[in-house]
Hints:
The chain is mainly alpha-helical. It has helices at 13-25, 30-48, 55-66, 79-92, 96-108, 111-117, 124-132, 140-143, 154-167, 204-215, and strands at residues 4-12, 70-78.
Amino acid sequence: xxxxxxxAVKVWQPVIDKLDKKIESGCxxxxxxxxxVLAIELERLDEEITxxxxxxxxxxxxxxxxxxxxxxxxxxxxxxxxxxxxxxxNEKRIVRDxxxxxxxxLLTATPPQIDRLLLLDSDWRNTVWMAHxxxxxxxxxxxxxxxxxxxxxxxxxxxxxxTNSATGSDNSFYRAVLTDKHFKSADIWGLxxxxxxxxxxxxxxxxxxxxxxxxx
Length: 216
């Protein structure tokens, strides 16, 4: 028997508002759906974040996250998922609520927003289709609609993979840096799961980065 525990998360207000509308429109049970998403995403997170944040980076992300207008939301999730989440956050020095907010933002984002947030060009969807359009196993939910494979970001990840292959980039879903430049009136530095110190104010790495720019 699964053990269910409650976890309180502070979610960016516009994101939770959009999520609730989409969940209702899709006739889904919110917590059950988020639980299925997390079961996949926590493993992806652990794979993609290969080194811990510095303490300075974690503190910077936490401070930025606190500046957003957030609402306390309680999720009922499997206890093993919550334990896994806590373990990853401790090992990788990730701000827990940054994970939730990033996932929920990308679940509710429009296609142009996804492209901008994850540094993808607008043609990546065609690239994925050209690569996999004839592979029926790539689209299981179409053929087995009552046995859904809940993995909402698999197409995006394939787009990132194909883009990386073409450009030589090492971009990933959780390593793409979110800043104060993605939205007109919102600073989303607080939604980063990994932030290199070159982006963190008052760190030696950041200062060296700025000094190198000055040298140019």
